[in-house]
Amino acid sequence: MFFKILILAVYVLLIVAIAVRRGRKTASFHDFFLGGGDIGPWMTAFTYGAAYFSAVVFIGFSGKIGWQFGYSGLWIALGNSLLGVLLVWWLLGHRIKKMAQEFQVSTMAEYFEKRYKSKFLKIFSSISIFVFFIPYSAAVFIGLSYLFKLNFNTEYWQALVFMGLFTTIYLVLGGYKSMTMIDVFFGMLMLVGGGIIIFSVLDKTGGLAAATTRLAAIDPKLTAAIGPPGIWPLFCLVFLTSVAPFAMPQLVQKFYAVKDKKAIRAGMWVSTTFAVILLTIAYFSGSLSRLFLSPQNAPAAFSNGKPVFDSLIPEMLTRVVPGSLSVFILLLILSASMSTLAALVLISSSAMVKDLYAGFINPNVSDRQLTRLMRILSAFFILLSVILAYFRPATIVSILGISWGAIGSVFLGPFVWGLLSKRVNRLGAVTSSVLGLSVCLFLYFSGRPSPEAGTVGMLVSLAANPLFSLFAKKNAPGPILGRDPEPKPGLE
Cα 164 to chain center, whole Å? Predict the structure, then answer.
């Protein structure tokens, strides 16, 4: 226990020291929010991957999906890697950077206002970010707190308070540049921790062939291409988590901040490799949780004989990973989660400060005041997320499903079509955003699983923009990326 506490203390002090050092060099809102807009390929690659994966994946998703779907959960790892990372970088990365420079914007809400000439869409998208990122952040805090509770024998609320304070100090002091510097370190820790997990799991099961045989003996469908729940629930999970990144604000921001097109091409392969390794480890390990856990040997992971999905992976790791190495697993999940939380907090606070306050209430606000308000709103957002996490309203997968589904439904249609087509207009964009979110929330509150509600809402958003754009006259939506005969310097 002393060794764990010592390593964690060194880790925390190192992160805080980097944040303080970078904070002294943060002179403007642009520095705080985008790190000056000149982040290199390796930093961007690791910060994208670290913001994509967190305790949500390693604790919530790998636990519930691994238990229910078995090996077929690996389709999610494949979809996330090829669609959510590789295709996003290849298809949209340079377009997003070029858009940010041509339209002179630093947020997606600002882009919507200029691309579609719609103040309503700017307000609607900004409020949606703040509202639906709170449960997403809460889900991350829930996963981390379960892990801390098990590793340090603390109360759940104590772990939650520690994580909230740590996140606040680390982000409020340093901003985006400190986050990207730390994410490279985080990424290395995640790879080391992932290696420890996969080797420990295979060692305990006797190898891949033995693990597969034992899993098939429990239920043959657990080793089949489509797991027990069936193809539709699996499709919804793959689609939700792989397609939403095309318009998730906390991931799109990475391309606003990247240096240039060359850095995007280099970072694409680094980020994809990073995703393939970590996601495969997470979902494969989760699929084997049935081999290690039962109501008899792990009563804390079950309630009335049924699994408590958010407790499965923490319980499994304590039985699989040697005690001397368990601190690296803690740092793996902590590192992934810290980056995700930082990205969510920055985007949410900017939605309130940059898009709403500076956009409508006080357009003449000074850069210094804007940066100070960003720090204050960041701390407030963390507080709201911690409070929600304390009450644990649902499983991590359910919370993430509605959060990602709602944000994807709001942003996917307007953002992707806005970058790729000159034919879409304000009517199509507004309709796709409002209708997509309405369908998503209606299905969710009607009792449909959150991944299904999110998937259908996102499909509606994608279909509605080009469809409803046909019913409106062209309203001069602005220059279309890739068609400007005189590209700005530094884009190629």
Answer: 18
Residue 307's φ and ψ, nearest 5 degrees, are -65, 140
pLDDT in tens, 344-358: 888 888 889 888 988
Joined tokens for residue 204: 């305990």
Q: Quote the CA–CA distance of 174 and 164 in Å, as a whole number.
A: 16
Alpha carbon 163 to its chain centroid, in Å, reads: 17
Q: Does residue 480 sit in helix, strand or coil?
A: coil
In a domain, 186, yes or no: yes
> Kind of pairing, strands 302-303 and 306-307?
antiparallel
Q: In total, how many domains does the chain have?
A: 1
Residues near 92 by beta carbon (within 8 Å), at least 6 away in sequence: 246, 255, 416, 419
Tell me how far apart the alpha carbons of residues 61 and 80 are, in angstroms, rounded to a whole number. 13
Dig out the tokens for 232 from the structure: 């539709």
- Among candidates 415, 466, 472, 412, which has minimal Cα distance to 437? 412
DSSP helix/strand/coil, 258: strand
pTM (two decimals): 0.86
Q: Which residue has the tokens 């709403």?
A: 356
End-to-end CA distance of the chain: 52
User: Any idea what the CATH number is for the domain that residue 348 is in?
Assistant: 1.20.1730.10
- Mind listing the pLDDT tens digit for each residue in 230-271? 999 999 999 999 999 999 998 998 888 787 888 898 889 999
Instruction: Report the amino acid identity of residue 3.
Output: F
